[in-house]
Amino acid sequence: MEKVVKVLSRAVPLSNEDIDTDQIIPARFLKATSREGFGENLFRDWRYNADNSPKESFVLNNATYEGSVLVAGKNFGCGSSREHAAWSLYDYGFRVVVSSFFADIFKGNALNNGLLPVQVSEDFLQELMETVKLRPDTEVEVDLVNQSISFNEFEESFEVNSYKKECLINGYDDIDYLVSIKNEIEAFEKQAITI
Amino acid sequence: MGKTLFDKVWDAHVVKQIDGGIDVLYIDRHLIHEVTSPQAFSELETRNLPLFRKEKMVATPDHNIPTKDQHLPIKDALSKHQVDRLLENCAKYDVELYGLGHPFQGIVHVIGPELGITLPGRTMVCGDSHTSTHGAFGAIAFGIGTSQVAQVMATQCLLQSKPKTMRITIDGELNKGVLAKDVILHIIAELTAAGGTGYFIEYAGAAIRSLSMEARMTVCNMSIEMGARGGMIAPDETTFDYIEGREFTPKGEAFEQAVAYWKTLHSDADAVFDQEYHFDAADIEPMITYGTNPGMGIKIKGNIPERLAASSQDSFHKSLDYMGFLPGESLMGKEINHVFIGSCTNSRIEDLRIVADYVKGKKKAAHVQAMIVPGSKQVEKQAIAEGLDLILKEAGFELREPGCSACLGMNDDKVPAGAYCVSTSNRNFEGRQGPGARTLLASPLVAAVTAVQGKIVDITEFLN
């Protein structure tokens, strides 16, 4: 996993609430057997018409907005457990998603792929959303070490689990750790209730 | 202080706790399917890791398979490649596989319980959010991402923060025509699509206790639709009766010993939950959804609200625009062209019986395409043994072969753009059943009545 420490970037505003993983990556694009290339179909049905021409009104097709920070409405990533949602956002170029509320499984998947979910207050989210919409050149800074997000004169701190923070900063995966404690897992198996 | 059912099962599976309050949680059973496993197998290969406990895994293709002519090679090249990869990986790592044509093949969340793989007190995971289904047996079961699938393959463990606990109690007796699907749609409409996020739910109360195992699975299945990682129900005699004698359940004395342990799996009288809700079964009526998340549900006779506290007006209107509905409108009399009965929520034998019982001697409306997809080969076999296939065929329903089908539209089973589909599945997201498709979630009974009437009606007027 790539390390994540600090991101300074312009942002893309997507104010829809309850953005589910079927919108992020529709099921019919889950037929691949590798992790690469999902960015192409990120937000596929919002981004393209049935004839594959871009929908001009969708924010990813608006050249005014760019950057590696996605700012989205509350309850982002609800629905399916498909990790392809995190892969597609990452593959497209996003490194941070800012929202006022994240679905659990999506949040875990994002953290396992170096995509940082930054949960902020509803007020901060609205301020950021409106600011970015009006001033697309606004730079957003996300500092994982200090757990802070800021733009213009606004700043807020965000929560991140201390273990996951270490993983992100050092580029470690859960699997590295779990494999390292295999002896303890085997010892657990010997005394566990097994039905 | 007493322990909750959830705490009892969780605590029995904690290998150790690490920084940040994260538990190393041991997983008893791991179900895999073709869509979320190939990248996990690749990860084992890249890292040169062996599969740790192959005997705790079961594989079946379900998401991306045709529901017609399953004896023939899969026509879609990408789907075929994905299913072939599952076969190759299972052969290479010696994982138990129920491939197409196998008598045990089916939707993972249907075959786990019917084969006796799902047992009370177990921890179970699968790369699919509806793994919450298995909680109906008093198991802790939840969906995981592909990186976690690889972790379980490599170590049989996951790193997890312990969720908070919620109990939802439903007292009283359910009204006529009200099924488990209505119960869970009612709960989600009340608590919203994000109301369970961060929690693991226990469903309790007389109305829950009165449900069959199939119905309990429907309730637990949709826990994820309010954001909860999972839902569970304490095992009881209904549970033990269902489990006894299945393919992989303990037999004889081992079964008796297991039951003695399973009887300890209930929340203690003095257990404290982080959140509690109470509902009265008498308030629950047949439900239907009108919007683009499962929290947007109403009593079928009711009206779409003018606004929704859980959504901004902008999101609410976007959702209604997609569906082609207006705030405050009633759905009564809306013409419906598609009916889908299936998915891990409602494709079990009991669901098929409910549909067949209603449509017996009737015909679907001429303009309706009605598709019914059994959850597994065993359900299909049972349906044929009971003659349900003939009843459904007579009524004009198309009975397909087992798979996830039009629940998520990965295969050819899609609803056309703009068309309305009354569906027994679990998600009404935009485009879920095909680009532009408009999904209305409902119970198998509502779906059956809709197919016959060809429009949304107050189903209680059509029941004997």
TrEMBL record, chain A:
GO biological process, alphabetically ordered: L-leucine biosynthetic process
Catalysis performed (reactions): (2R,3S)-3-isopropylmalate = (2S)-2-isopropylmalate
GO molecular function term, any single one: 3-isopropylmalate dehydratase activity
Pfam families according to UniProt: Aconitase_C (PF00694)
Entries under InterPro entries matching the protein: 3-IsopropMal_deHydase_ssu (IPR004431), Aconitase/3IPM_dehydase_swvl (IPR015928), AconitaseA/IPMdHydase_ssu_swvl (IPR000573), IPMI_Swivel (IPR033940), LeuD (IPR050075)
Gene Ontology cellular-component terms listed: 3-isopropylmalate dehydratase complex
Presence of the UniProt keyword Amino-acid biosynthesis in the record: yes
Pathway where this protein functions: Amino-acid biosynthesis; L-leucine biosynthesis; L-leucine from 3-methyl-2-oxobutanoate: step 2/4
Ranges of residues in domain Aconitase A/isopropylmalate dehydratase small subunit swivel: 1-122
The keyword Oxidoreductase appears for this protein: no
UniProt family annotation: Belongs to the LeuD family. LeuD type 1 subfamily.
PANTHER family for the chain: 3-ISOPROPYLMALATE DEHYDRATASE SMALL SUBUNIT, 3-ISOPROPYLMALATE DEHYDRATASE SMALL SUBUNIT 2-RELATED-RELATED
Record text on subunit structure and interactions: Heterodimer of LeuC and LeuD.
Role played: Catalyzes the isomerization between 2-isopropylmalate and 3-isopropylmalate, via the formation of 2-isopropylmaleate.
Name recorded for this polypeptide: 3-isopropylmalate dehydratase small subunit
Organism: Roseivirga echinicomitans
Gene behind this protein: leuD
TrEMBL record, chain B:
Binding site for [4Fe-4S] cluster: 344, 404, 407
CDD domains named among the record's database cross-references: IPMI (cd01583)
Gene3D superfamilies given in the database record: Aconitase, domain 3
Cofactor needs: [4Fe-4S] cluster
Listed InterPro entries: 3-IsopropMal_deHydase_lsu, Acnase/IPM_dHydase_lsu_aba_1/3, Acoase/IPM_deHydtase_lsu_aba, Aconitase_4Fe-4S_BS, Aconitase_4Fe-4S_dom, IPM_dehydratase_rel_enz, IPMI_cat
Catalytic activity: (2R,3S)-3-isopropylmalate = (2S)-2-isopropylmalate
Highest taxon in the source lineage: Bacteria
The keyword Coiled coil is assigned to this record: no
Pathway: Amino-acid biosynthesis; L-leucine biosynthesis; L-leucine from 3-methyl-2-oxobutanoate: step 2/4
Gene Ontology MF terms in the entry: 3-isopropylmalate dehydratase activity; 4 iron, 4 sulfur cluster binding; isomerase activity; metal ion binding
Purpose: Catalyzes the isomerization between 2-isopropylmalate and 3-isopropylmalate, via the formation of 2-isopropylmaleate.
Subunit structure: Heterodimer of LeuC and LeuD.
Family listed: Belongs to the aconitase/IPM isomerase family. LeuC type 1 subfamily.
Protein known as: 3-isopropylmalate dehydratase large subunit
Species annotation: Roseivirga echinicomitans
Lineage: Bacteria, Pseudomonadati, Bacteroidota, Cytophagia, Cytophagales
